## 1
Amino acid sequence: MWKRSKVTDQTAAGQTGIKKKSKVPGVMITQFLEELPEGKSTPDFTRKPIALTIQEGKCAVFKAIVVGTPTPTITWGRANGEIHFHPDMCLQKYDEASREHTIEFPKVAPEDADTYKCFATNEYGRAVCTVALNVIAVGFSKTKELQKTQVEDTKDIRQKLKKRKEDGTREEKKMEPEEKVWEILLSADKKDYERICGEYGITDFRRMLKKLSEMKKEREEEIAEFVTHISTLKHIEVNDSDCATIELDMDLKDPTSKLFLYKDGVMVPFTTEESESMKHNLKQVGKKYVFTIKNLGSEDAGLYSVDVGGINVFSTDFKVPEVDFAVKIQEVIAEERQDALFQCVLTAPTDDLKWLGKSAPLSNSEKFEITVSEDKLIHKLMVRDCMPLDAGIYAAVAGIKSCNAWLVVEVDKDAASKGKKATRKTTTAGGANEQDLMTIAKEQQEMYQKKLDEKIEMAKKAQAEREAAEAVAKVEGEAAKKAAAEEKAAAKAAAKAKAAAKAKAKRAAAAEDAAAGKKKAAAAAAAGAGAGGADGGKGADGGAAVGVGGEGGTAAGAGGAEGLGEEYDSFEDSDGEIEGEGGGGVGGGEGAGDGGVGGGEGDGEEGEGRQGGKRKKRVRDGPLVPDTVIGDKNDEGTTNQPGETSGKKEKRQKKKDVAVEEAVVDPGVHFHAGLSDCKAIIGEAAELECKVSREDCEGLWYKDGEEIQSSEDITISKDGTFHRLKIHKVTEEYAGKYKFEADGRKTESLIVVEDPPRFPAEELEAFKNPVTVKKGHKASFKLPYFGREPIKIQWYLDGEELSEEATIKLDYSEGCSSLLLTKLQRKDSGEVKMKLKNEFGTVEAISQLIVLDKPTPPMGPLEIVEASSSTIDFKWRPPKDSGGCKIDNYILDRQQVGRNTWKKVGPIGPEPKYKDSDVDHGRRYCYRIRVETEMGTSELMETEDIQAGTKAYPGAPSSPKVVTAFKDCINLSWSPPSETGGTNILGYNLEKRKKGSNLWGQVNAPDEMIKGKGCGVKDVVEGMEYEFRVSAINNSGAGEFSTPSEFVFARDPKKPPGKVIDFKVTDSTYTTLSLSWTKPKDIEGVEDEAKGYFVEIRPAESTDWDRCNSNAITMTSYTVKGLKSMGMYWVRAIATNDGGEGEAQELDNYILATPPPVRPRFTDVKIKSFMVVRAGNSARFTINFEASPWPEVIWLKDGSPVPKKVTISNTEGSSQLLIPSSERSDTGIYTIIVKNIVAQESFSIEIRVTDEPKPPGPVETDENVPGTVTISWTPSPDEKRDDRLHYMVTKRDSSKSTWHTIADHIFNNRFTLCNIMPGREYQFRVYAKNDMGSSKHSESPKWLIPSKRAKFTVTMPETKACDLQCPPKFLLPLKMHTAPQGYECYMSCAIKGDPTPHVTWLRNNISLNTNTNYFISNTCGVCSLLILRVGPKDTGEYKIVAENSMGRAECSTKLTVRE
């Protein structure tokens, strides 16, 4: 066996491989990590597969349910061999609803019987369980009969494939199709098996796999004799240089082993040097071998095989499709970041066109897009986003034809953009006219179809000719048989008459007749020899005649005159033999073969007649073939002689044509093959060889210009036209230039002398012997070497380079190196390699280190072979590591579950299996198993509990299905359960239940089970609704019941319903259509009630109706979805019930997929009409609407089209306005107009673009009225640009340290504050405010009214009655107001009066006091009205009326709303 790459176990580095037990018996869990992360878990089985014993040909299913986080991956395996997943053999499935993983064998066969394993794996662990499948063979089995001959067939095929000559080469003959297909399969990938079997007509897929497996095993053993390691087997590939290559990596045990290349079983010569003259070439780079086939043609198709030392190691089938390029790809010049397109047109459809970019294969990706036309003639390659690195040669390869072209990428030479990435271009460079390509492709398609039709016609014609020839031959054969039969009958009658006439005379003179016969026989022999085989000799009465025919040909006859014996009836039963002899005469008179008559090669067969009146049985020594076969143009014949082997060929003498020879001028001596450079190793032999055109040529050898002669160290020889110079033992002085000169012509070469590192042969052989030590001991390796210094020495253990450590000692001395390993452990076992390297090469020496230790415990999972009431038979897996020693014994202990004692079973031998017959039925047992070797005993492995004999009930059958239902009988059917409990199903129990009841009643009698898989239930009441369930019965008893069937009425079948009524369209959109109808009338005995409805639709351009709902609907309305916009459709509805479908009701006219006309309407519940945006930010406004048909959407700003900087995005049912970076100039009223053919609707929104205001100017204070202070300030610079700007004033006095707002919403530049207290110091701040916020403050100087201290005198006034009552009077009237739409408006006035007057606000003489849209207040005589959001409806005259008992006062103003 050759070496394969190492496959590490799933418990790799960093994975501890902790063994755990599952709660489910028979499941073994391996945990990879010591501690699992939170929320993660190892896989486990909640339901494991159950063992099956099933009849051959049935369906076998194993089911398993697994848990684990993350979700485990499920794989299946078997103990013996591999599972071949094929639709006819084995299927793996997963049901998401039940979370069941299943493996199903559709038709189980005896070879499927095995122990199967289910693996559940995730990144934290693995769970394994096993299950057995037993197959019961039934009756006569073709498979068993075939198996008897299968081994012989396999051997025959292998013998055919292994027929070799003594030198290891194959016999020179074409391969038979049977040999070819097996050689292809031996090297093919598994995914190609089905395709190959289909091509060669192999139908028995299962048998093929078994036979192929046996052949592979034998071939691996044969290859191991010559090859150490083989990998990377690449099937034949065609590249863009008109060459095909076969690649394989292999490490030959003997580098001098011969390699052979065969095509269809015939050896192909090849060269190991680059040569234009040779078609086939072998190139070796290290361990890689590459066979190259140049100048490809259709004749190169066939099966190519690579043999090493007479053993086939690899085969690949090369097929050459009849395809060429009608249009080749052309050069494409593309700009940077532009797409490039290559196109070509083929002469025949193909899928296997390969694209290459700079000699690398290309596939569909983000960079490359490969497309193929529907007729598979036009192929395109799109190179996206071309960059300078993408420039180069691109090629297309179809079969053995190829074409290539340059892709030139022009870089942007603009200096400004240098160093920057160019912008992506949307244009495409290259590509011919699409219409021209389509035309050419159509022409090629027609030509291809025409050729195909011609081939079919020729095949039909040839078939007809063959059939006609066969008919003619059949007629002629029948006529010949008839004539022969008549001639035979006549001859037979004549012979009988003659025999009867001479019988008496012969009996009287028997002795005389015998003597006469001998004389005549001698005379006939002499005559035959002289005549040269003219008649082959004619026999005399009762004698024999022998003649010589042609060259060594003989003919013998028996009988009487003219070659017919007197007793001719002796051949009465030999008609078949006579006819089978071919061209011989009847009996033996003319000779049995063609040797006498034809005068050709070979001997005729001997014919035996009667002698002495006795009848002899005719015996045939050779096969039934003609003696002489006319050959091909070489005139080769085949002669079959008694005692010789069929197939001997000899050439006939041919008449040669005579030709006049022309005079030829002698060109002199020239070289057929010159000298080649040679690398020679010191101490070994070197040879130079050349070939000249004539044998009589003599020549001279020179080294570095000096003539050389033969000596003890150099031999110069001549063999015909070959001249050789051989150096027996090379030293450095032999390096130089060598020349051979003959007749003025010369050839030169160099000998380069090398001294690579090498090992002495004897020491190397001793080093290769494995070194075996015990654990903890030491091992040493030592090996001398020689070669030119400096030499690099490296030691390796199992592929890892060794360096000086505590346990590793390396010694390097002149010409020798040694390695000492101490304190060895079992894990140190492996390959020890010494590697030498200098300037001339590398050499390696390999040995093995084996460290012996105690074995590891045996491995599970346990395989239970038998668990019956009297026997427990089980197997297990050997230990993973036997410690390097042979296993002497397995030591077993047994415990009965429930007891504390263990019983020692004792050593049972080296086989990992045990059969325990000392068990009690129903008891459970547990076993401990240990391994014993010469190094000690391993740790124990404890098995799961095994029960001796169990009862296995069958699973649930399928749910019963209603076949037919009548008022007095309901017929049911079901399928048997997939789990039979390991025994045959004996019968079924059937139960029924009325709808609404909880009680199940058994249909069949308790002691009479139902044998079949169906039943007719007659115990039903008409009109009642029933459901049914069924359970299976085996030897253990009845199993689980199935799921109940659907409810079914006990009544006669119904009549189909009638047509639906009032079928109409209620609504439609571009993609949907809403329908409604009324249920059809119920006419007793004619049309029954409808239970559901189907809706069908048909496009106007189609004739086929498509059903919209797969299941009948019970509603009398339905919405059809997925229509094409503006498409025309015909629609119909069909009512259905248990009696079938009724007659369809179709709409009178077709329907157009478009919504009904709808007036445009804005659908947003609340729409903003005002928006404030900070300058520099983006402004976005989205509005939703509905309209049908699709409306036109227009946006205006202040009545004019919006500027270009504004982006409008319209989608179905909505529109969006976007101002990317707003400026104050973007402030305005934006209006959207939505209009269609029905109407139009508009909406306006004011967008105000502003920023935080700048602070006002200096603040001044002044006392105009005593006790008051007037604050004035310079307006803010933003006041002119923002009509919403206003001011706020805050105050702080010396009595308080905090600031208080004293006035807000001031639209002028002054404010008067009352109640100024003398002696207090005041300070004021003024802020400018707008919709974005407030500005920084402007602060006033401190303000102080000094207090005047006067003499306090009290003058008591005269007491008078004071009457303060007065009618209402306006101290501060209302002002005129103009407010922008959407802003707030604030009105205020001051009133005095005693008693306090009642205030009423009116708009257009309508009271507003109870209107919640207005905020009205009256504080200490200051009356105010606030309108939060001014609209056009607020325009008008506002009046305030104050009334008390003393009088009445009015004040009015007008409010104008500015848009």
## 2
Amino acid sequence: MEPGSDDFLPPPECPVFEPSWAEFRDPLGYIAKIRPIAEKSGICKIRPPADWQPPFAVEVDNFRFTPRIQRLNELEAQTRVKLNYLDQIAKFWEIQGSSLKIPNVERRILDLYSLSKIVVEEGGYEAICKDRRWARVAQRLNYPPGKNIGSLLRSHYERIVYPYEMYQSGANLVQCNTRPFDNEEKDKEYKPHSIPLRQSVQPSKFNSYGRRAKRLQPDIESYVCRMCSRGDEDDKLLLCDGCDDNYHIFCLLPPLPEIPKGVWRCPKCVMAECKRPPEAFGFEQATREYTLQSFGEMADSFKADYFNMPVHMVPTELVEKEFWRLVNSIEEDVTVEYGADIHSKEFGSGFPVSDSKRHLTPEEEEYATSGWNLNVMPVLEQSVLCHINADISGMKVPWLYVGMVFSAFCWHIEDHWSYSINYLHWGEPKTWYGVPSLAAEHLEEVMKKLTPELFDSQPDLLHQLVTLMNPNTLMSHGVPVVRTNQCAGEFVITFPRAYHSGFNQGYNFAEAVNFCTADWLPAGRQCIEHYRRLRRYCVFSHEELICKMAACPEKLDLNLAAAVHKEMFIMVQEERRLRKALLEKGVTEAEREAFELLPDDERQCIKCKTTCFLSALACYDCPDGLVCLSHINDLCKCSSSRQYLRYRYTLDELPAMLHKLKVRAESFDTWANKVRVALEVEDGRKRSLEELRALESEARERRFPNSELLQRLKNCLSEAEACVSRALGLVSGQEAGPHRVAGLQMTLAELRAFLDQMNNLPCAMHQIGDVKGILEQVEAYQAEAREALASLPSSPGLLQSLLERGQQLGVEVPEAQQLQRQVEQAQWLDEVKRTLAPSARRGTLAVMRGLLVAGASVAPSPAVDKARAELQELLTIAERWEEKAHLCLEARQKHPPATLEAIIREAENIPVHLPNIQALKEALAKARAWIADVDEIQNGDHYPCLDDLEGLVAVGRDLPVGLEELRQLELQVLTAHSWREKASKTFLKKNSCYTLLEVLCPCADAGSDSTKRSRWMEKELGLYKSDTELLGLSAQDLRDPGSVIVAFKEGEQKEKEGILQLRRTNSAKPSPLASSTTASSATSICVCGQVPAGVGALQCDLCQDWFHGRCVSVPRLLSSPRPNPTSSPLLAWWEWDTKFLCPLCMRSRRPRLETILALLVALQRLPVRLPEGEALQCLTERAISWQGRARQALASEDVTALLGRLAELRQRLQTEPRPEEPSACPSAPASDPLGEGSGKNTPKVQGLLENGDSVTSSEKAALEEGSGKRDLEMLSSLLPQLSGPALELPEATRAPLEELMMEGDLLEVTLDENHSIWQLLQAGQSPDLERIRTLLELEKAERHGSRARGRALERRRRRKVDRGGEGDDPAREELEPKRVRSSGPEAEEAQEEEELEEETGGEGPPTSLPTTGSPSTQENQNGLEPAPEATSGPLAPFSTLTPQLHLPSPPQPPQQQL
């Protein structure tokens, strides 16, 4: 019964060996050691030590190969026989004009081959039908009984097989159906297997018309029917496409009803075609070339798809069962590819190889020389193949194998029945099956018995590596089979004539090679005889190999020499016999021939294909061939006198070679006898070291095996040399005396044992006398030391001298240790006495502890005990005071200096150096120095500087001493910091990039636009933080008030000169509003880093530079004051808030002068000097001075008259009622400032806005938004009607005012006179329509962008109300920042916007950049704080500034940005 996939039983496992490192170092020796066990299984597995992991040396990128194609069910011998049979039947029915369809019986395909074979075995078709034994046939085919399957099988046999069998036997007159498959729809159509060259019958290129054309040829003989020999009824005459014979369709059996279409062959041609012998079977090469990566991807993809799971999760048992199921299957055709027999010499070995191609690392060098490297193992010294000069690929040079799942290697034995070794470098396992050599012939007999058809056509089939057979089938016939799974990093060894096969579990890479040892030689000779019977070519000449080794016996390993001698003896005897037979035949002529110089194909026996070496028979008349002496009758038919012997050696030379081998093999025995006599002192004479070394050198030179006797000799030599070295060391140690190397002394017992060891060695050494002399000296010293110890207490000097004499001996004497302890005791007591002496330097605690520890190891005595007690008491007291000092140093509650002084005073009485007490003393000294520094700085001519006080506070806090002055200093520093923080809040904008001192000081480099701008950018980036650089003062200069004042005055002048220079420079730059503006070196650059151009650019009124309106804070037109609800929203255009100062000019909040005076009053109360305070005083004096000059200018007669005219114009505009209809309005802006759309709703809206209690904040915002939108639209519509100037301002008046205006804009202080001068200058010139339009556009964009933000804020307020009115919590309001509480509803709204952004993570509606109005407008609304600033537009313009500053992009008000 054939095994199926479900009943495949894995064979037993082969032996597995795990050598130790010592065993692993000798590969062939270890294989010889395990051979008695492993040879019984045929194969074995070896696991190297875990840390033996050779690197993979193949160049993966350059490795390309073409694999073989394997169709699995063609590999198995029995399955291939069945497929061949089915191909022949299919070919038969194809010739008959039908395609073969294999029927299904009991839900499985009918095995037509087995059916045919069983019918023949049961006596044939007629006998079975006669005896009605079809049920037995069904039973033998393993069909269940009782289902009338026998009749069904008979029907199928008659229909499909019987006609073919009749044609095969030549009985072609049997009635058969020429269309047996026409009605069998359920049968499976058989497609012939695509084995190369198997189907030799190719489809005819001629159709039915071609057949008729042949019949019209003029040859009259072709019209005669071969059956009836008549040529009548020409229309029913049929022409064979194979032989051109003619047949009547009614003369054929069975007769044909009509002329068939397509190709038709006569019965004679059909029989000839079906009886054609099959072609030899072999593997095809794939058409695609692979790299390792592409082959691996294909292999893994195939396996994953086939098993429908990741490749590493497929069990090996499942793959094994599936493999044998596919191999045995007829209907399933699975094709795989196998990269087999890839030459490592061409593609590179997987092991590192020592050659000149590339440099090897030390690790690679180690593996390149290892005996387990498959490039090294065949040529090891103990290997036979190292004596073959040629590089035999696959035997001496490894082959590489790249496998995929199901790729297989078929049953085979190695060439010349040699050993083989296979190493799996990496990848999935390789499954092996092995049969021992004893069962090799049994396996061959079973395979020939089961598949005789294959061996009839290929007698050497098993040597072609193309045939598998199920291991269960072999085991069922008594063949012993073992298996194993070879994993990555493991070796598999196959033994001589051990059949083996297997398959790969998946993608892997293996390497294999052959090797031969001495024990292989008999098997190699038997293999040559086997090859001679099979007429198979040899890979190399066995005789030549034996003779080559015999020619140089001294190079052979001893065991190999013995084995070669045995083989050579057998070979010489056989050669004598063969030459004698040749002489008896009458061949007397002979010629010497150097066969090793001839190519193998010129010295092969024409009969048995054996490669000749010792001799061959040739003929003078037939020079093309020769025969071995075993086939002298098969050379030619010429006379014996024309034949002659070609020989390599004469019969006299061969015994001489044999004798040399014998001498080499027996030389070991002679040497062994000499060694045995020397080691056992049989003749009573001890050999010298030189004689023993000579024996060892002889063994090494003659390469004797590592026997037990040689090991004994080596051990004896090693021991003797060690004794000599030790004796010399003992003598030299005595001579060195106290300077000898420590650790080389031996005890007295060891010295006596050493002397006995030297006496017992079978070696004569003259150093024995020296050792005896040393032993006598030591024994005399021992007696003297005993006498001294017995008379204790002896003199310390006597003990010390005895101890020094003992140390010079170089041998440890027990009494010397006692002497040492007595000396150590005296030395210890002396050390304690010196340490505790009053005049001695105080020792440390470590010294005291060391003395105590040393005292524990000295010999006990009353004096030692007393000294140890004193030391322990002193150490305890010292440690207590050290702990107390440590607590004082580490305690949180610091002690006053008086307490620390008392502790230090008491600790001074202890005669021990105490580190903590010393640290406490140093801390107290530092505290006194600190107090002196405080007194000095407090009593100086000036108030102390804040920096000095902060330094003192930092030092005082680090001191472990309680200082009363420290609290007073901390309070002064805290007060100074509080004032500075208050001043910073007053002046600095939120997140300002300037320090308070920089804001208070004049901008001395104002004249350089690039310097000013780059410094501002550096501040934004946090790269520039110097407080005093602008004044040119060092830290020491800041301590002198006079230096600060002088520097401030100089800075004022530099600032004024610089701003004038900057204004001239910037005024010369092209206006961005001009259409022809282009970027150049003299072009303005905005704070965002871009060139401002087109609509939306604003010019700073101070520095005259241009900026994007969306990048800076701009004034709001709608924030201009309106006296009453009925007045014009435009008022006088010269009073509109259009003044713009850039962020580089306006660096602070610019508080009012009254606020600054309050800060100065607080500064006067500080007992500390701050640079900022002195700078503030200078700024205040500068502001008051400017205010006085401004008031004087405003009070002049000319200016007073101009101000009066402006007041009249303002009064007229305020008292003039607004017209109801826009059509009645004059065109002049002064008389008709109102435009269409402001109507009668304005008073109502204004009233609602004033009554904040009657509407909600959302309603206020809605009303303000509606009113503001209408005002902006109305302002935009009336811009073309504006004209000016309103006043005629003489140049004599204008110039001083403009200079005052510029100086006032430089002040970081808000003054009302500045605003008055600004309005007067505005009225004296035409309205700046471009700026007004720009401001209107920016305000419109801001209001549009803030609408969504207002809705989000309203939803937030509602949530607060729903949570319980958290917004009205007075405690919460008290905790809010002062800026939020004091800034009115708009500031509250801004605060809520910030909170909303924090809640939403900065992802809320985009906010806009706030704007800044004129300083006077801000101060009128908010006092110290800036006015609630509206936004100027969406945040989008910030995207251009952010990448330059490397800052995050959440929206911030301008005081945070600038």
